[in-house]
Design brief:
By secondary structure, the chain is an all-alpha fold. The protein is 82% helix and 0% strand.
Amino acid sequence: MERLKCYIILFLMVAGSTNIKAAFKSNIYTAYISNNMAQWERIIIEMNLQKVNNNDFVLELLNYQYGYIAWCLENGKDDLARQYLDQGEKNLQIKKP
């Protein structure tokens, strides 16, 4: 019985983090196809505030930051690109178990 409880808790933890990532992925896609970079930036900010201890989540965030940095550079927003580049470098230093 105790083992079953552990499995259920583990399943709920994994399912919860997967739902968070899926929601961000869907929102980023919507921002991308509608060329809504303000929404893209809000998603990055929201993801940065999450306390998710998951390598996949951090990798997804870095991918979104990479895309946003490229857009900033293309549109002459070098200071904003530098800000997100620094933030991305900090995220690269996060070591997850």
